Request: fold
Amino acid sequence: MADDRLLKWRGEFPILSRCNYLISNSLGAMPRGVYANLQRYADTWAEQGVSAWGSGWFELPQTVGDRIAPLMGAAPGSVLAHQNASIANSILFGALDFSDTSRDKVVITELDFPSDVYALRSWLPDHMRVHTIPSRDGISIDIEEFLDAIDESTRLVSTSHVLFRSAFIMPAREITAKARRVGAQVVFNGYHSVGVIPVDVGAWDVDYYIGGTLKWLCGGPGGVFMYVRPDLLPSLNPKVTGWFASRAPFAFDVEKLDLRQDAYRLMNGTPGIASLHAIQPGVGIIAEIGVPAIREKSMRQTALIIALADEMGYEVVSPRDVERRAGTVTVNPPQAYEVSCELLAREIKVDFRPKAGIRIAPHFYNSDAEIRAALLAIGEILADGSWRRHQLS
Ligand SMILES: Cc1ncc(COP(=O)(O)O)c(C=O)c1O
Reply:
């Protein structure tokens, strides 16, 4: 059974031996290989000093991007590591051309990650308008309504491939196809998709795709990745930029920035070399297991959470259709916030989101027994009243 095969990886993740770690939607567990990689980084810096730049540090954003690329169907060289999605968004939005006033619409959804929308709005010229597709149930977006909103007046569609509150999977291929038909472009947030559901930016002809490594890729904070369809690169003129985007960074020419034609066109300054070392063991493990096996197990375990929540009578704020559901199930029992605090006190790691509930996110390293224990604990906490200890006065 897939479950048994994947549980052999548990030993690679130290935290799993001391708590019930069901929070990979927030921060994936740290692979023990990170110790060695950070040690290698420290040794290189300590022993080589400035010469360490010659040991591959300059190329590291690309090296890491190339390791992530196969997990999302991207060609080598088309993915570059950046520091966080908010910065990557600003780099991208600032580089887009919004000068065609006949294309004044940007389509988003009410359930997108707010930071994406903050960055988007900050870069839009005054003539642009944001068209927000509402969610009627707090879980999903009406796909027909969303696709209909993408029309000839649309410049950009900016949404998440997987919605962070509910784990609803947006149909990336259809969205991209519709945008292409009407001459619009699409940027996806892939924070909750790469590493847990199949993603194929190449086959789907996606324009832009920005995701993070710290959740489902077990890569730790400080690393995101940005895919840009290679033929679009020359059309991008970044405002958030710097010497790493230059063809001749060591010419130190103050008058002219001659932008590179490859993914480094969207780089800016010195990358966080330590984080780029920490990212790699997690990405390596995901690649070795393969996303199809992870997805298969995830579908089964998220269904198990829903079945248990149904049995116990708790509201489920995630899609019931397995094809539309990614790796997280949000369960909304009574007193969900207080219950989530008590779960944490009992070393059952989950998180709580307002207007949603308790997010439970098993990854390939979790057992069915851990899922059952978490749901059982919710019942106990409500029954024994221990949730009251966390009531806000
Ligand atoms: C959907 C989504 N996007 C982005 C982020 C984080 O953004 P940033 O990398 O700018 O911190 C998160 C973090 O929880 C997220 O859930």
